[in-house]
Design a protein that fits this description.
The protein is an alpha+beta fold and about 180 residues long. It folds into two domains: about 140 residues, Neuraminidase (6 Propeller), CATH 2.120.10.80; about 35 residues. It is built from one helix and 14 strands, in the order ββββββββββββββα. It starts with a strand and ends in a 6-residue tail after the last helix. About 30% of the residues are buried.
Amino acid sequence: MLVGSDVYVIGGATGLNADTAVASASGYRYDTAQNEWSSLPPMPEARYACSACVLYVMGGKSASYTVLSSVIRFDPASSSWSTMTPMSTALEGCGSYPLGGCFYAAGGHDGHNYLNTVEKYDPSTDSWSAVRAMGHVRNSLRSSAQSMKLEVNLFDALIARAEAMSRGANSGRGVR
């Protein structure tokens, strides 16, 4: 994730597939001005398939493959991690987007189902609230705040078009 002019890489997994993945608690900061990488202190819990937004890391899977609802925040000034209020749903593969001083966790997988839910986090109150769900389930979302609305609306329109085309093909009529 990009914060100011620095790039942060947090968590993730080693291994080539989900069966051999080993969750990581490591993190790194790339200083673009100095062209240097530095290590961050380890996260309190190793995780992969997590989402990160404005130095907040949410959800993902633990080293024991448990889907997480926990949220942690990295403070570059003190070089430390803080535990925040967890999401209401444990999620892996959700997308996160900063917007208007808050951020949104969209879609993902709760360990059983793919979801279309969206939760809004307000850092000023350290609280989560549900907002209107997306039109379709999504997993492994990646985007920027500027394109969030466009991406979600475009994806919904493309799915609706594909569904309409499928119905048209099945009925012997094409869709224009």
